[in-house]
Amino acid sequence: MYDDYGAPVPVHPTVSTAAPLHRQDTAVPVYMPEGDPSFSPGAMTQWTPGYGESYAGWDEYWQDEEFSRNFQFGIIDNGLLVAMTLAGVSLEDQIAKAVGVKGYGAIMGAAVGNAISDGAAALPQGPKAAAGVTLGCLAPVIPLAVAMAMKKEIKGTTRNMLLASSAALLLYAFTSKKLKQSDRA
After folding, report:
1. How far is 130 from 178, CA to CA, in rounded Å?
2. How many CA within 13 A on the CB side of residue 25?
3. Is 138 a residue whose pLDDT tops 90?
4. In 27-64, which residue ranges form alpha helices assigned H by DSSP?
5. Could you tell me if 151 and 71 lie in one domain?
6. Same domain, 135 and 147
7. 43-55 burial by CB neighbour count: b if 16+ within 10 A, else e?
8. Do 128 and 180 sit in the same domain of this protein?
9. In the 8-state DSSP scheme, what is residue 165?
10. 161 and 78: one domain?
11. pLDDT digits (tens, 9 = 90+) for 5-52
């Protein structure tokens, strides 16, 4: 099958090239930047699946062990994160009463929830990985806990100091010698 420019049109293996395209097997325009070395006017159309069909490549992803493991990680990670954030939001009034300042329920719920969810999601990789992830997630919570203990509202100088401490931790994490060595391995 060829397009108006004479280039072959990508066709799904289940579509006959001898028969005209049916409604479920329509070709749709796909944006491809001109700087892309694979760009050609003939590549401007692509097969889209009809009802009950799927893109051929997805089956490979679902059967791949690494993809499945990381998909599971994502479900555990964000499932627990959402639950813990909602818990923090729902406990906002009690936390504000105990601390004397509003605004810490959601952020502490999200931060601690993220540490728990990442640690739980890393458990299949082993206990050392889970412990390292959990402690790494809790490091940025320390300045937040200090500000909370000091009964500081999260605005102005306190907010700026919390942002600066997070930025410093991110800079450390991305420039750490251990991280650079593990990327090379």
Report:
1. 17
2. 14
3. yes
4. 56-63
5. yes
6. yes
7. bbbebeeeeeeee
8. yes
9. H
10. yes
11. 666 666 555 444 444 444 444 455 555 455 555 555 555 455 555 555
